[in-house]
């Protein structure tokens, strides 16, 4: 008999809780990964930077596993079908993995678990992606927090020590001729310009994060979003580093968990406003204006620069994410779900809970959101955070500024009215 370790959003060997428990179980462990067609088929753009990132991260894992005289077996299909054939090919005792809290993943795991159960195979999932998950930080009446500050206070109080998981790699199955992992072409995708490098924590950035993080031209944030998304870095390692060097950065990691537990407890936020009343907002949803926003042609340089950064690199600085999102929802009165979907297509660090939570936060429809009457003024934001226009010039070197789609003052009045009307 063997055990299986199923890699998903945890593409690393070090400090991997599920892998650690699998290797401790006493049986040999076969590592597998599944390119899930149910996810891949939803991606319209076949030059997807995330898929490229995953493929390269897997190649990296494969090299490390070969050094350990083992190997990663990579499949392409529906997880349930893959497990059906795995159970025919191998005598499996337990399938280990790390828990995923997104609604679609919960459903998938339940199906696999039910199937394995019928075959008398155990399914053992571990906490790895977060420090505190779903029901670990609750109010005294056992209901979830919906406001960040008290949540983060209790989160910090609950944090005693951080476990690390050092796996014993001697228990990996021995594989003498591991198969190559599938190329992007094999799974119907194309190469992008993304280069995977092993993520690391940069002391210089983290130490001075609080001072510089808000200035997009300085690009002084960790860029670890994608690594946290796909687990090429351990969140425990990040939190330990944050505790030692910078509490402001720690708070960002807590925001990540805050929105994850919101998604877990209130899965309706995927399609609906957290605050139900806001469903009454009468969005203008002008398609041409939406297209102009996507393409960075709104006539507001800071917004256009942000969208160009996103379209070119798959990244956008957090300050500019807030400005562009506010512009779409308030200035153009376009439904936050349109913007959310566009970011979801483009962001390398796209994460359902963080993207949804932040979009709703900016739009004022979410839990713990900015009050709806706070409307970013793009020019004021530029004066404050890109005074010398360095960021704008970087992303719009030959900018032929189009006529602004809308006048700021008019847009502000219009948004206030639409929101007020919805809430009356
Ligand atoms: P750093 O500033 O170095 O922060 C470290 C890590 O903390 C991030 O990598 C991320 O995991 C977490 N984090 C930081 N800020 C937030 C936040 N506000 N909410 C949740 N987690 C946070 N973040 C995503 O990870 N995925 C998304 O899809 C996403 N969409 C966003 C959409 C909008 C409209 C806005 C305003 C923000 C969004 N964010 C999202 C949050 C934030 O902008 C990014 O996490 C951050 O810019 C990523 O850069 P970094 O890795 O250098 O982060």
Automatic annotation (TrEMBL):
Site (Electron transfer via tryptophanyl radical): 283, 336, 359
Gene3D superfamilies named among the record's database cross-references: 1.25.40.80, DNA Cyclobutane Dipyrimidine Photolyase, subunit A, domain 3 (1.10.579.10), HUPs (3.40.50.620)
Domain Photolyase/cryptochrome alpha/beta: 1-131
Binding site for FAD: 209, 249, 252-259, 349-351
Chain segments annotated as coiled-coil in the UniProt record: none
GO process annotations (BP): nucleobase-containing compound metabolic process; response to light stimulus; response to stress
Keywords: Chromophore, FAD, Flavoprotein, Lyase
Superkingdom of origin: Bacteria
Cofactor binding annotation: Binds 1 FAD per subunit.
Cofactor names: FAD; (6R)-5,10-methylene-5,6,7,8-tetrahydrofolate
GO molecular function terms noted in the UniProt entry: deoxyribodipyrimidine photo-lyase activity; DNA binding; FAD binding
Family note: Belongs to the DNA photolyase family.
The protein's name: Deoxyribodipyrimidine photolyase
Organism field: Chryseobacterium taiwanense
Native organism taxonomy: Bacteria, Pseudomonadati, Bacteroidota, Flavobacteriia, Flavobacteriales
């Amino acid at each position: 008999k063997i055990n299986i370790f199923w890699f998903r959003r945890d593409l690393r060997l070090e400090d991997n809780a599920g892998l650690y428990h699998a290797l401790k179980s006493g049986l040999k462990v076969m590592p597998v990964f599944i390119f899930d067609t149910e996810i891949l088929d939803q991606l319209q753009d076949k030059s997807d930077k995330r898929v490229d990132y995953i493929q390269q991260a897997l190649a990296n894992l494969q090299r490390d596993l070969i050094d350990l005289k083992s190997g990663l077996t990579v499949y392409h299909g529906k997880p349930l079908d893959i497990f059906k054939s795995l159970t025919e090919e191998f005598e499996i005792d337990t399938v280990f993995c790390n828990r995923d809290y997104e609604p679609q993943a919960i459903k998938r795991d339940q199906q696999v678990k039910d199937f394995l159960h019928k075959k008398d195979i155990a399914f053992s999932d571990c906490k790895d992606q977060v420090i505190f998950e779903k029901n670990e930080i609750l109010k005294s009446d056992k209901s979830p927090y919906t406001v960040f500050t008290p949540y983060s206070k209790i989160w910090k109080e609950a944090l005693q020590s951080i476990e690390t998981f050092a796996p014993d790699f001697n228990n990996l199955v021995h594989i003498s001729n591991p198969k190559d992992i599938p190329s992007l072409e094999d799974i119907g995708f194309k190469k992008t310009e993304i280069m995977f490098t092993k993520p690391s924590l940069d002391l210089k950035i983290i130490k001075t994060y609080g001072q510089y993080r808000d200035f997009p031209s300085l690009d002084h944030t960790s860029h670890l979003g994608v690594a946290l998304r796909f687990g090429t870095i351990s969140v425990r390692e990040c939190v330990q580093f944050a505790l030692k060097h910078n509490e402001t950065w720690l708070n960002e990691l807590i925001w990540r968990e805050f929105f994850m537990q919101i998604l877990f407890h209130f899965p309706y936020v995927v399609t609906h406003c957290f605050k139900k009343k806001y469903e009454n907002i009468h969005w203008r949803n002008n398609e041409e204006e939406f297209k102009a926003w996507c393409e960075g042609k709104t006539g507001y340089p800071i917004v256009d620069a942000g969208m160009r950064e996103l379209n070119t690199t798959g990244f956008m600085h957090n300050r500019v994410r807030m400005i562009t999102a506010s512009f779409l929802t308030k200035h153009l009165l376009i439904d936050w779900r349109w913007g959310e979907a566009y970011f979801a297509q483009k962001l390398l660090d796209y994460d359902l809970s963080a993207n949804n939570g932040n979009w709703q936060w900016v739009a004022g429809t979410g839990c713990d959101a900015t009050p709806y009457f706070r409307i970013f003024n793009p020019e004021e934001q530029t004066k404050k955070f890109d005074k010398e226009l360095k960021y704008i010039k970087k992303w719009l070197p030959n900018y032929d500024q189009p006529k602004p789609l809308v006048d700021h003052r008019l847009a502000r009045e219009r948004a206030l009215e639409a929101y007020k009307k919805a809430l009356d």
